[in-house]
Amino acid sequence: MTTTDVKDKQAAYRDELVKQGLLIPTGVDGLYGRSGVFEDVIERFDALITVWGRGDGAEVMRFPPALNRRAFEQSEYLKSFPHLAGTIHSFAGDERAHRTLLRRLEEGQDWTEDQVATDVVMTPAACYPVYPTVAARGPLPGEGRLIDVFSYCFRHEPSLDPARMQLFRMREYIRIGTPDQVMEFRELWIERGRDLIASLGLPVGIDVANDPFFGRAGKMLSSSQRDQKLKFELLIPITSEESPTACLSFNYHQEHFGHLWDIRTADGEVAHTACVGFGMERVALALFRHHGFDPATWPAPVRAVLWG
């Protein structure tokens, strides 16, 4: 299948979702409103994740979809993904500049000349606010920490693929502790994730993955990540059987965030971190693809899992 064929299938599925009223176009690729039906599926899936993770005793944290700019810079996200980052700018001019802005706006010209970066940026991944928050508390307790987060995230990659939105939701469990604690968590959730998605009647595949790092060093970083098996993805066909979509990810960051934020274990060692991330919209899109656009007609076992 050619790249053109893949893009045609992605656009066709997007168009059908819009026709069915599940996605509401805004005139910007990758930016959509959602219908009540779509949101209900998201809420039911979110509740299912909570059921599967309830016994672990995770601490719940909820952050807005914006991040402290200084914390964002410290995270080193810009070193690897500058093309995906979303900064927030505001007007900083005087009255004269405001008059110029109004004139340019009326004439259909660029009006952004006097916009300057603010102290906040768009959150690229739900886990990013967690690390400085945990670091500020001091050394970890002996059992480490387990955090449950859920947030809208932004990545600047406009696309006709409905599974590649610019603003999307991510639910994560983040494990922070010793290497053994963190690896045990990741292995547990790889199995849980497979079973959780299988309970929804969806085809499941898990494979070693890598991130599309930016720049000349990107290929080296990607190869290293894949060779060390730091990232696994749970794949579900949405617009293509040949190129299934990553709907869950299982990431082992080693001591990367521990070093950046000086997070220490109870015995003073640099903490390791791992996370499992659920692409909320992607799982909903997979459910609509495989079971139909009307949840009332979905298979009874799937409805029982989501609606009881």
Automatic annotation (TrEMBL):
Q: Report the InterPro entries cross-referenced here.
A: aa-tRNA-synth_II/BPL/LPL
Q: What is this protein called?
A: Amino acid--[acyl-carrier-protein] ligase
**Gene Ontology terms, MF aspect:** ligase activity
Question: What SUPFAM superfamilies does the database record attribute to this sequence?
Answer: Class II aaRS and biotin synthetases
Superkingdom, according to UniProt? Bacteria
Q: Give the organism, scientific name.
A: Azospirillum thermophilum
Q: Which CDD domains match?
A: Gly_His_Pro_Ser_Thr_tRS_core (cd00670)
- Keyword annotations from UniProtKB, A to Z: Ligase
